[in-house]
Write a structure and sequence with these properties.
Blueprint: H1 3-23, H2 28-40, H3 51-69, H4 74-90, H5 92-96, H6 102-126, H7 130-154
Helix pairs in contact: 1-4, 1-7, 2-3, 6-7
Length: 157
């Protein structure tokens, strides 16, 4: 495989990750209801569970109560989803012309690294469990290798 194809594949992985993260942020309550059915069965009471199942049920319960009383709050996650999709569009530039737009990859690397302080500073303030902050940070961590790989390969072009 040529370096250009390798670069494009690495960037495509990032684009697909951003798009998937974006589209799955729209139906959060629906997804949590499905997950609750799958993991907890009939008992949706968070206090009847611990660990990950407790957290998922607790978040689902909070989201359901919030959406019932304040449905406009979901608009915030709609914007989060939209932002993921818009960021994915920026990576089309280096996918098409990696040498010219390598700066986009550098910004992507910076953003991937900056996910960590966001998660580990804001997470505790918002009451997010440590292990969930690790999961939240995983997108940035998993994004780093393909971006760094593509940046290294650009030097071969």
């Amino acid at each position: 495989m040529t370096p250009l194809k390798q670069i494009r594949l690495a960037i495509l992985i990032v684009i697909i990750g951003l798009v998937l993260s974006g589209v799955t942020a729209f139906p959060l309550l629906h997804e949590l209801n499905l997950l609750a059915d799958l993991l907890a069965g009939d008992s949706r009471d968070p206090s009847a569970h611990d660990g990950l199942i407790h957290w998922i049920l607790f978040v689902r319960e909070g989201l359901e109560a919030t959406y019932q009383r304040y449905p406009f709050i979901a608009y915030g996650t709609d914007w989060l989803a939209f932002a993921h999709l818009m960021i994915a569009l920026f990576f089309i530039l280096p996918w098409r012309d990696p040498v010219r737009y390598e700066g986009v990859l550098k910004v992507g690397i910076a953003c991937s690294l900056l996910i960590l302080p966001l998660a580990f500073i804001c997470g505790p303030i918002r009451g997010i469990p440590f292990w969930w902050r690790v999961i939240d940070s995983s997108f940035g961590i998993f994004c780093l290798p393909p971006l760094m790989f593509a940046l290294r390969k650009i030097r071969q072009l």
